[in-house]
């Protein structure tokens, strides 16, 4: 009888075997073919994959909740480059799109407390473009809430 705790060994084309603590981020075909995924830019798709990899790499989960993950500046720097105001804006714009299209929700913004923001994955992407699917204010970043209040 095979052991349940047997660790998956990636194939040579999947990973660099010299990298310690390497993680993977599965993406299912149903997501890749969805209207929501197709509406993302390539940079936003890559950001989602980075978030997914971070979710699996994080051993100690925020607020002791297994559904949560953090994604702070040191994590997005490798994707967006050196910390500049324009790169910061691009990151926040892309994260906002992931939230608006139902892939991610913001659990806790770290802006006011100068701590890491806490996120969780959402399944609302499945209903993207359908009537009645709504991103709640409790799922938005502080910048999104600020925009929402300004638009009211």
Quick gist of this model?
This protein is mostly helical.
List keywords for this structure.
about 10% strand; about 150 residues; mainly alpha
Q: How many domains make up the coordinates?
A: 1
Proportion of strand residues: 5-15%
Estimate percent helicity: 25-40%
Distance between the termini: 61 Å
Low-confidence stretches: none
Question: What secondary-structure arrangement, pairings included, does this model have?
Answer:
Layout: H1 29-32, H2 35-38, H3 42-57, E1 68-70, H4 73-80, H5 85-100, E2 104-108, E3 118-121, H6 142-151
Antiparallel strand pairs: 1-3, 2-3
Structural description of this entry:
This protein has 152 residues and is mainly α. It has one domain (29-151). It is built from six helices and three strands. A three-stranded antiparallel sheet has the order 1-3-2.
């Amino acid at each position: 009888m095979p052991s349940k705790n047997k660790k998956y060994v990636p194939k040579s084309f999947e990973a660099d075997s010299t990298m310690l603590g390497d993680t993977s981020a599965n993406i299912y075909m149903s997501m890749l073919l969805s209207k929501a995924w197709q509406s993302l830019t390539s940079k936003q798709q890559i950001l989602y994959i980075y978030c997914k990899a971070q979710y699996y790499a994080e051993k100690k989960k925020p607020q002791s909740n297994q559904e949560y993950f953090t994604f702070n500046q040191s994590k997005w720097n490798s994707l967006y480059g050196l910390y500049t105001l324009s790169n910061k804006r691009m990151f926040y714009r892309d994260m906002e799109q992931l939230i608006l299209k139902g892939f991610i929700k913001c659990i806790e913004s770290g802006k006011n407390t100068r701590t890491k923001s806490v996120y969780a994955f959402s399944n609302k992407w499945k209903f993207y473009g359908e009537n009645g699917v709504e991103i709640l204010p409790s799922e938005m970043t502080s910048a999104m809430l600020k925009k929402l209040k300004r638009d009211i």
